[in-house]
Write a structure and sequence with these properties.
Order of helices and strands: HHHHH
Number of domains: 1
Mean pLDDT: 92
Shape: elongated
Radius of gyration: 20 Å
Length: about 180
């Protein structure tokens, strides 16, 4: 009875973590629209009015970084990440084998890599904040630490989605659906 209760609680945790990933993915999708509008404006200003802006170009890169980093957990949740599908999607792989591959990958590759990046990025963010680092280019954006803080934030979101995937794969292997 204790194992069933634990699995039920873990499945509830997995559902909540996946809802969080879904929410962050939908929120970050609006940044894509903002970036498209910003790039369109920047291109129009440069080609029609010969007026460019370093700050606008940096903002485009910053938005792209945020979309990539914060959207990674949403991408993992929807199984749209990069994978060698030659074997994974072959007829020799059933759902249980895929669950084993995903479980192994999450436990031994994804989770340790996320922890490594999160722990390595914090000093990088703190130093940027302490020195109030800004763009080295004239007319660039200030407060670069905000962008740098998105690195550990994005990998924390990815770590949480990895935990949700571990629980989901364990449920598949134990014959229980989430």
């Amino acid at each position: 009875m204790h194992i069933k209760t634990t699995l039920r609680l873990l499945n509830q945790l997995s559902v909540r973590l996946e809802q969080f990933s879904e929410c962050t993915g939908k929120l970050v999708s609006w940044l894509v629209l903002v970036m498209v509008l910003l790039v369109s404006y920047d291109v129009a200003m440069r080609y029609f009015f010969q007026s460019g802006s370093v700050a606008l170009q940096e903002m485009e890169w910053h938005l792209f970084s945020l979309i990539f980093l914060i959207g990674a957990s949403y991408t993992l949740k929807h199984d749209d990440h990069v994978r060698l599908d030659l074997f994974y999607k072959s007829k020799f792989m059933d759902d249980r084998r895929r669950a084993w591959v995903d479980l192994f990958g999450s436990i031994f590759l994804l989770i340790p890599f996320c922890i490594l990046i999160i722990s390595s990025a914090w000093p990088f963010v703190v130093q940027s904040y302490i020195h109030l680092e800004g763009s080295p280019d004239p007319g660039g954006l200030p407060y670069r630490w905000i962008l740098k803080a998105s690195i550990p934030l994005g990998f924390t979101f990815l770590l949480l989605q990895g935990i949700a995937d571990i629980v989901k794969n364990l449920s598949t292997l134990l014959g229980k659906d989430t």
